Amino acid sequence: MLRVRGLTVGYGGEPVLDGIDLDLESGHFASLIGPSGSGKTSILRVVTNLLQPEHGAIELDVNTREIGFLFQDDALLPWRTVRQNVTLGLRIRGAASGDADTQAEHWLTRLGLEGFGDRYPGQLSGGQRKRVAIAQVLALRPKLLLMDEPFASLDAIVRTRITQELLDWVEREHLTVLLVTHDLEEAIGVSDEVHVLSHGPRATIRARHSIDIPRPRNVLQVRRHPDFGPLLQTLWDELADEPPEKGTAT
Ligand SMILES: Nc1ncnc2c1ncn2[C@@H]1O[C@H](COP(=O)(O)OP(=O)(O)O)[C@@H](O)[C@H]1O
Ligand SMILES: [Mg+2]
Questions:
Q1: CATH number of 1-62+143-245
Q2: Which residues make up the environment of ion ligand 2, defined by Cβ < 5 Å?
Q3: What is the reported pTM?
Q4: Nearest ligand, CA of residue 42?
Q5: Cβ count near 52 (within 10 Å)
Q6: Which sequence spans correspond to the domains of the chain?
Q7: Residue 1 pLDDT level (bands cut at 50, 70, 90)
Q8: Which ligand is located closest to the Cα atom of residue 71?
Q9: pLDDT tens digit string along 85-105?
């Protein structure tokens, strides 16, 4: 679905990423973890064509319209209702307003927001807003889903619940996903493979791990799988033996 080859990225001559290779098979769920500032978001920017790499190539088996994005800060428009937010992308793609409304209702119901269509984002909790953002993305039926720390702002209970709902959908639809996360347990819990980025500048992929835990998965029960603890320790060690961030006192 996605092949990243020899990706080298910098900002204004400052090197960030150096020769990143990454393959994502169709129907696989991959996570990308790494120290803050190592260049995780920059990889997603290149994949989505928002950033031009210095070297390297991206090959995608889907066109950019088939890619869905979910970011840490939801991009809901505060002056539009929940329904109007969810239908926005569909309308841009030319859906008739009645059809778009029907689809929006379907997705809002699926995500537990039945009857919330006429509210404004400011009248929702953080978890509800995140569900609207997910409805907005899934309504466009993406084949590849890119997520950048999407649940970082949510409390643990809401986060666990929403992660499970999204995982159920991804497993059922065999969606291909690339998730950037800080959360090692989340990465192990949801992924088929975890890619570990080294500390920048000139970050590289320092390790890759296959997570051979059967699906469907429950994000809480998966922690009791015998592979979970050792994998968590390995990932932790790989991140912990990185040098401290430039400029931080030691
Ligand atoms: N638009 C930008 N201009 C200059 N430097 C940037 C820009 N975006 C990111 N950087 C720098 O590039 C590095 C990697 O950033 P980023 O990809 O956001 O890392 P991560 O997502 O892993 O935290 C950081 O050192 C960051 O300060
Ligand atoms: Mg980032």
A1: 3.40.50.300
A2: 40-41
A3: 0.93
A4: 1
A5: 8
A6: 1-62+143-245, 73-141
A7: very high
A8: 2
A9: 999 989 988 889 999 999 999
